[in-house]
Amino acid sequence: MPPAYHLTHLRELESEAVHVMREVVAEFERPVLLFSGGKDSIVLLRLAEKAFRPAPFPFPLMHVDTGHNFPEAIEYRDRRVAELGERLIVASVEDSIREGRVVEETGPRASRNSLQTVTLLDAIAEHGFDAAFGGARRDEERARAKERILSFRDEFGQWEPQRQRPELWSLFNGRIRKGEHARVFPISNWTELDVWQYIYEEGLEVPAIYFAHEREVFARDGMLYAVSPFVELMEGERPFMASVRYRTVGDMSCTGAVESDAGTLEAVVAEIAATELTERGQTRADDRVTEAAMEDRKRQGYF
Amino acid sequence: MSVPTNRSDVASNGNGKSVVKGEGALAFAGESAQEAFKRLTERPADLLRFATAGSVDDGKSTLIGRLLYDSKQVLADQLAHVEQTSQRMGHDFLDLSLLTDGLRAEREQGITIDVAYRYFATAQRRFIIADTPGHEQYTRNMVTGASTADLAIVLIDARKGVVAQSKRHAFISSLLGIPHVVVCVNKMDLVDYDEAVFDRIVAEFDTFAARLELPDVTFIPISALLGDNVVDRSESMPWYQGPPLLYHLEHVHIASDRNLIDVRFPVQWVIRPPATSVSDYRAYAGQLAGGIIRQGDEVVVLPGGQHTTVASIDTFEGPVAEAFPPMSVALRLSDDIDVGRGSTIVRTQNQPTVSGRFECLLCWMSEQPLSPRRRYMVKHTTRTAMVGAVDVRYRIDVETLHRDESATTLELNDLARVQLELSSPLVFDSYRRNHVTGSLIVIDVASNETVGAGVILDTEVEGAHGPQTKSERSPNVRWQGTRMTRERRWRSLGHGGATLWFTGLPGAGKSTVAAGVEERLVQAGQAAFLLDGDNLRHGLNGDLGFDEGARRENVRRTAHVARLLAESGTIALVSLVSPYAADRETAAALHAADDLDFIEIYVNAPLELCEQRDPKGLYARARAGELAGLTGVGAPYEAPADPDLVLGSDQETIEQEVDRVMELLAARGLTSI
């Protein structure tokens, strides 16, 4: 138990994140917060409340909608935004496809995941955003372990790991040139377990798909995928019913479920505490493609 | 496949077992999911941030891999990845160092690019590791990684003993005031777990560390590869009575490392909802950098100096009675005073230093060397200020601690003691007293890069021990504060001070115009004083010649006198050839650092005209070869690039030129006429 005048690790991480958000809002002209309805961005919204209430957030929220999201996540997204009384911008991959900015992949393994990058960069340019808050964490993936809290992107939205600015103490250098922008990750130092423990301590609502539910799924590459109009079944893949939940909320086409009967926040925290697999390793096809999959996507301007 | 348990596992072939399943989980050994949940929610842990440093082959990655693996933090898919990669690299053992490799470039080249952050937890604590590479850019990376650390692990190869890099790591730990240092003497298995080897390294390190400030140093003999004394006690070193590394990390006392005495609250952001929603709510948001602040405390807002009390300490959950570091809160104050980002709120009885001039230890982090031609700014807490001048006192060799007083510039990875002069004051403490209010970064204004990191020195303490240095010869770091303030003085006089700097060729007419301005001002009842270069050379600057160094010193002294006059409320009129642009910039920076107006007036008369006038016969003597180095003839004149005013054309009379100077003064609000 921490002694007097000492914060628990979670409250210390919370304060660090609030500090980052206030610094960025003070130093940048047009920040935006990327909100997907996933657990990490749910935490970001609570941190924004802690940083700026009783005033409205000094930035809008933005969701890059692939059109292949879980309906539960979209329903939650809209409800949460309405509760907060904040403004949501939806940037749509569907529109990018229609405008010919990107070309849809085809076949049973098709996913719109990589197309998001173009939609995101277009939206950032269109609205003139110079800082985008995201919920990425360094424990998620090897490339992220090296990324700064303020991560600079050039005019093409690219991340250059060798040219990152040193980040010392809690002093952030937020100076950028016109056309450049920064991705800001206030919960860089949090782990998946921290996120769930925080959601539990704060009593935050999350989309229903994070809890165990009966769903029609099929097995592919050692993962369970939801049967949906967005994924073609391959030969030999047979749908079956199972009690599952999701550890991450991405596209239906690349996010796998885990078998679980955790129906409450308490049960989810306990399950994560005892898990033997990382969240991306267990449930994200997008990180399995090559050993450096995330690194490559980040260099191109991914979240 | 398995982790090695003796060196031959690493060297020979074919005795690996296959790992089928992850051996780790975030729950601890023997703990059920429900027990883990109970522990997490009922016995919250605290956070220890530590930095690791070591040379390329010291086994740093292996040590971190060991800590993660033996504390059961490696999950099955991560382990499977390590196993695959180990096999591909031709190992038949699990190479734990692969757990920490990050980017493709690093894997391909077998190097570590940058600081990487790792996370693990035990039942006692949560840990954040700043893993800093030991190769080139070592200093920059280690300073970055160590800046937030509560503890540093310095790795020493038992076979090599204390090497230059170990000294560098120890020195940087000392410089950054890391409260706890653990020296891990690694690869003990390669020296037969010999106690004498360990003792010798301890003694060597102690000898060096005696010259540093390391309040708490612990030595642990380990073998990262084989796991001796990392998580579990080694059976091979019964002579070592201390705890293994992980136990030490879990139990080292960090609660008293923070400053709970001096209340320091740098304001980040003003929370002010639109008038319609919450009537008249206004709170100052920030993260407490020191001390315990309580509702009702009498406080002063710096650098302005307004007094008020804390009306309320607000959080999202509601008001709290007190706050301590590193809490993020929002303060409401009893009085409606001018507070904004960059203000620092402190207790009335305990105030930091407010100054634009101080000394710090600066680490240079850019491939572009420090240059007087580039413009820099400083970011400190929530304030920024332009850098007027950087005076390098001496550079420190981080391996020998030798001081190089001849250094004038800084290159990548250099460490130096410097004096900074800034355009506006900071509100600071020494780094020794408070890491948040005592640290700063330097940003190159043109490239936007972070090029330096500095820790502010407490010069009074520094001067007490340690050899005589340039700065001690001139202990001008802290201005002798008196109760008299500039505001009081200038208000009483009815006008403020400033410096008008007339530069140009000899005979251009600088002194004539300056004397005309002086006449007008004094007649109107405003204090003005002409500092004429020739006159000053009769007294104050009588010891100076005319070579480049002497001219520079001439300008420096004159600039300081002008600054004092301006501070006193006088319009100082400097009439000086001052041929070098850099010297004039230094004079300008000196004023900028004190927030005093400095107006550069270029009296630009053509050389032929000056020569024709030649009031002192200088040109004639120079042309006759009797006078060497006359500006314009035998020495260069660097014209101002962007002067505030240009005079000297033959189209205007002296009176008209004086008029134009007076108009400029009026436009800048510097005249009471």
Instruction: Provide a count of the helices of chain A.
Output: 9
User: What portion of the residues of chain B fall into strands of 2 or more residues?
Assistant: 15-25%
Radius of gyration of chain A: 19 Å
CATH class of the largest domain in chain A: Alpha Beta
- Under CATH, the topology of the largest domain in chain A can be stated as Rossmann fold
End-to-end C-alpha gap of chain B: 90 Å
CATH superfamily descriptor of the largest domain in chain B: P-loop containing nucleotide triphosphate hydrolases
Number of domains of chain A: 2
Number of domains of chain B: 4
State the oligomer: heterodimer
CATH class of the largest domain in chain B: Alpha Beta
> Kindly, what is the distance between the CA atoms of the first and last residues of chain A, rounded to a whole number of angstroms?
36 Å
Helix proportion of chain A = 25-40%
* Helix percent band of chain B: 25-40%
State which percent range the strand residues of chain A make up: 15-25%
Q: Please mark out the parts of chain A with pLDDT under 50 across 5 or more consecutive residues, or reply none.
A: none
